[in-house]
């Protein structure tokens, strides 16, 4: 179990950075030859953590991560609530009292699609308890449920935390909430939580204060404490109340990874007492409450195994657990994220001080201290960006309905696009040249789904539904045109060849309806060039997915000048439904993410020229907070691919910003067969999972060294990152991206830009734009004009302006 917990600790990085953030990417050739973003570096993990901001996940807290369609923000113009006999409370339905003496309290945040714990809800809950339960001797037990089907409580409202300027002011607020929980327990009647849908963060903490927990077997039901993903910790007693229920190792696994726990596992680990069908939830909860009240029902707690008792219930065993967890956290985060260490501190403090309220006081004090950190501010900023990226800005009826999507090309990209589309209930036509090509795509999807079934993340029924949503087609299939005639959207993922793509546009337009949208997955060719000569250019748009598509959250949507609004809105809604975080970017070479990556690649070559050893270069960037260094990245993606991308952008419109380094070095490596991991040797040599610096390449690289400048780690970081950041700012200046939020989200999810720094623009705010411009000017004087800050940075520095308020 110690080893299991060690692996669980590794999951921390995956969770904090999210599925997208655990992977640094650059363009590469996919199986079908198209230039795509390839997965670069993965972190070890236990099972699979819940997604980060997960495109599909947003945050709320005392802090909880919530699902993508959750609406937890308070609107500024919200009308004041006026109580009526039919609706006494804003955040609860009127309490129902059964004839048997059970009070059913249903959460129901008025005007919201989900329930979240705001300061206002906390205040009203005290009022409700005092009015309805406190002095009502007829009440034998209480059931907490939700009036919203498929959602219990998604967490606490992050808006309340953000608007609290002095985070120390959160301490008495949290204390008031905790005293409320202690107060309702003091009445001495059974409390039952009836959970259908998400019970996350503060929502699960509410349930933990209850005597009995029942959840539904719905696919929407999940429980977790994902506060770590916002750089926070559970503040309503979660660090103290969870481990006595599920065991120390399970509790640490949940809190350090923020993972979702599904019903069957929740029952097995003791997090819930019963799992029932949604239709019977409240009736079973009422019966259980009565059973607890009259002592005919006693909760059955699963006893710990002898080995777990040996580990968890004595100081020597716990020392081994803490030692293992700390090592793994340091290994995978370099200590950049303070929240996991604070979570550990809170649990340890509670174990050392088991009685009284001191442990809860310590917990809320640590929560407030974390809420004041730049890391939490950055992660919450990413959450806010995710929230903003959920809407395209057009009216609700602008997007066209999409029931059927044709995917052309069944390679890794095409199959991945087909997978995430079919999983959302959309009919998919998967087309390629022949049965063999289509068969590989089908196998890719089915293998991924089978893994989910094996890990109990998908039912057999859902597997069968997904499979039935995909219709394979080949070029010589006589019914191709008939099927395509019914498609609402075609997504092309074929070779990166302009003539081929134009040919496909012509073929698609001849067999599809006037309204059918054509989306190209190119990562290099201008969308306007692909649309040139088309009959319906207004229907053509770029949808740049990142590989592997099922894991990566980012989707760049690229309209050309002639793309109509309905096409943009439809592409955005399809991408969002696929679980992607969509950013709309301008039709320029490299779009946004790859465009920013180009100068970074050139500067990597420049640093090697200036004598920086390979391993030192990798280490410096990892220490900055990137998931992987540039040398490892090149090997993982492929030296040939990196060389191609660098040369492509060098010949584009970036001018001097793509100068300063000799990327021909990588072209020579390709000729020598040093392609990276896929050939067994690149900058590193690979022997199974082990890698060591390739001595031949090391000697070859040294031949490019003009002078060893003996650069410090800080200067290495600044030179590389400033090229990245300056290009992002230039993209904002040139209106390639709409605003800094888009820029932050794009690079955090598209390149793994250190999440705890919040993206390039929030990073600039943290270090000061004026300081950064001064640094870049010094580098420009020292190394050349490629370091000259763009005009936007100069303007912000001169006016002492920030990118984020």
UniProtKB/TrEMBL annotation:
InterPro entries recorded: 3-OHacyl-CoA_DH_CS, 3-OHacyl-CoA_DH_NAD-bd, 3HC_DH_C, 6-PGluconate_DH-like_C_sf, ClpP/crotonase-like_dom_sf, Enoyl-CoA_hyd/isom_CS, Enoyl-CoA_hydra/iso, FA_oxidation_alpha_subunit
EC number assigned by the record: 4.2.1.17
Domain named 3-hydroxyacyl-CoA dehydrogenase C-terminal: residues: 590-686, 716-801
GO biological process: fatty acid beta-oxidation
GO cellular component, one term: mitochondrial fatty acid beta-oxidation multienzyme complex
A matching Pfam family: 3HCDH
Pathway of action: Lipid metabolism; fatty acid beta-oxidation
This protein's UniProt keywords: Fatty acid metabolism, Lipid metabolism, Lyase, Multifunctional enzyme, NAD, Oxidoreductase
Any GO molecular function: enoyl-CoA hydratase activity
Family annotation (CDD domains): crotonase-like (cd06558)
Domain named 3-hydroxyacyl-CoA dehydrogenase NAD binding: residues: 404-588
Recorded family membership: In the central section; belongs to the 3-hydroxyacyl-CoA dehydrogenase family. Belongs to the enoyl-CoA hydratase/isomerase family.
Protein name, per record: enoyl-CoA hydratase
């Amino acid at each position: 179990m110690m080893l299991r917990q060690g692996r669980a600790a590794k999951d921390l990085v995956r969770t904090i950075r999210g599925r997208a953030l655990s992977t640094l990417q650059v363009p590469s050739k996919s199986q079908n030859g198209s230039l795509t973003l390839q997965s670069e570096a993965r972190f070890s993990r236990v099972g699979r953590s819940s997604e980060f901001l997960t495109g599909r996940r947003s945050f709320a807290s005392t802090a909880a991560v919530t699902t993508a369609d959750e609406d937890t923000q308070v609107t500024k113009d919200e009308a004041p609530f006026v109580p009526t006999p039919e609706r006494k409370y804003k955040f609860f339905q009127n309490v129902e009292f059964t004839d048997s003496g059970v009070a059913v309290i249903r959460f129901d945040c008025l005007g919201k699609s989900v329930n979240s714990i705001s300061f206002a809800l906390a205040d009203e809950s005290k009022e409700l308890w005092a009015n309805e339960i406190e002095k009502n001797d007829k009440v034998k037990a209480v059931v907490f449920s939700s009036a919203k089907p498929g959602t219990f409580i998604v967490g606490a409202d992050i808006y309340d935390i953000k608007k609290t300027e002095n985070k120390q002011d959160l301490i008495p607020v949290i204390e008031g909430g905790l005293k409320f929980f202690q107060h309702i327990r003091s009445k001495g009647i059974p409390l039952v939580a009836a959970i259908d849908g998400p019970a996350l963060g503060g929502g699960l903490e509410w349930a933990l204060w209850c005597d009995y927990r029942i959840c539904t077997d719905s696919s929407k039901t999940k429980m977790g404490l994902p506060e770590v993903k916002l750089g926070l910790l559970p503040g309503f007693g979660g660090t103290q109340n969870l481990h006595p229920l599920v065991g120390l190792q399970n509790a640490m696994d949940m809190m350090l990874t923020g993972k979702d726990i599904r019903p069957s596992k929740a029952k097995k680990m003791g997090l819930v007492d019963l799992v029932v069908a949604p239709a019977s939830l409240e009736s079973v909860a009422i019966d259980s409450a009565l059973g607890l009240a009259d002592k005919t029902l006693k909760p059955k707690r699963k006893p710990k195994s002898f080995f777990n008792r040996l580990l968890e219930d004595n100081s020597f065993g716990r020392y081994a657990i803490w030692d293992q967890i700390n090592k793994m956290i340091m290994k995978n985060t370099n200590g950049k994220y303070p929240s996991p260490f604070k979570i550990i501190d809170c649990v340890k403090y509670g174990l050392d001080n088991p009685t009284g309220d001191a442990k809860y006081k310590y917990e809320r004090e640590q929560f407030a201290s974390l809420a004041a950190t730049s890391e939490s501010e950055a992660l919450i900023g990413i959450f806010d960006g995710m929230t903003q990226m959920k809407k395209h800005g057009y009216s609700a009826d602008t997007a066209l309905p999409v029931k059927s999507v044709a995917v052309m090309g069944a390679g890794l990209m095409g199959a991945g696009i087909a997978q995430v589309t079919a999983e959302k209930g959309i009919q998919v036509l998967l087309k390629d040249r022949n049965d063999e090509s289509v068969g590989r795509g089908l196998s890719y999807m089915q293998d991924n789904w089978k893994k989910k079934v094996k890990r109990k993340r998908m039912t057999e029924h859902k597997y069968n539904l997904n499979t039935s949503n995909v219709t394979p087609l080949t070029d010589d299939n006589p019914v191709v045109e008939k099927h395509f005639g019914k498609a609402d959207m075609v997504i092309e993922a074929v070779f990166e060849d302009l003539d081929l793509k134009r040919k496909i546009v012509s073929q698609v337009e001849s067999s599809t309806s006037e309204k059918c949208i054509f989306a190209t997955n190119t990562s290099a060719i201008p969308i306007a060039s692909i649309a040139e000569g088309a009959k319906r250019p207004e229907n053509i748009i770029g949808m740049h997915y990142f590989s592997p598509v099922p894991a990566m959250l980012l989707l760049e949507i690229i309209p050309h000048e002639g793309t109509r609004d309905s096409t943009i809105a439809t592409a955005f809604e399809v991408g969002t439904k696929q679980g992607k975080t969509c950013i709309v970017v301008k039709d320029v070479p490299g779009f946004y993410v790859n465009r920013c990556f180009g100068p970074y690649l050139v500067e990597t070559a420049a640093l090697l020229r200036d004598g920086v050893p390979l391993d030192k270069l990798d280490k410096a960037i990892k220490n900055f907070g990137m998931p992987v260094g540039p040398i490892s990245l090149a090997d993982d993606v492929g030296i040939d691919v990196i060389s191609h991308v660098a040369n492509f952008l060098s010949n584009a419109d970036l001018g001097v910003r793509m100068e300063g380094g000799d990327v021909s070095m990588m072209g020579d490596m390709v000729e020598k067969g040093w392609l990276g991991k896929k050939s067994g040797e690149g900058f590193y040599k690979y022997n199974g999972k082990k890698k060591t610096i390739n001595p031949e390449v090391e000697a070859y690289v040294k031949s490019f060294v003009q002078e060893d400048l003996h650069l410090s780690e800080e200067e290495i970081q600044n030179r590389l990152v400033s090229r990245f950041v300056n290009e992002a700012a230039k993209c904002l200046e040139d209106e390639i991206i709409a605003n800094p939020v888009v820029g932050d989200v794009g690079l955090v999810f598209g390149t793994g830009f250190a999440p705890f720094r919040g993206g390039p623009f929030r990073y600039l705010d943290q270090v000061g734009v004026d300081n950064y411009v001064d640094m870049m000017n010094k580098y420009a004087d020292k190394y050349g004009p490629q370091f000259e800050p763009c005009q936007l940075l100069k303007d912000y520095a001169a006016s002492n302006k920030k990118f984020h308020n």
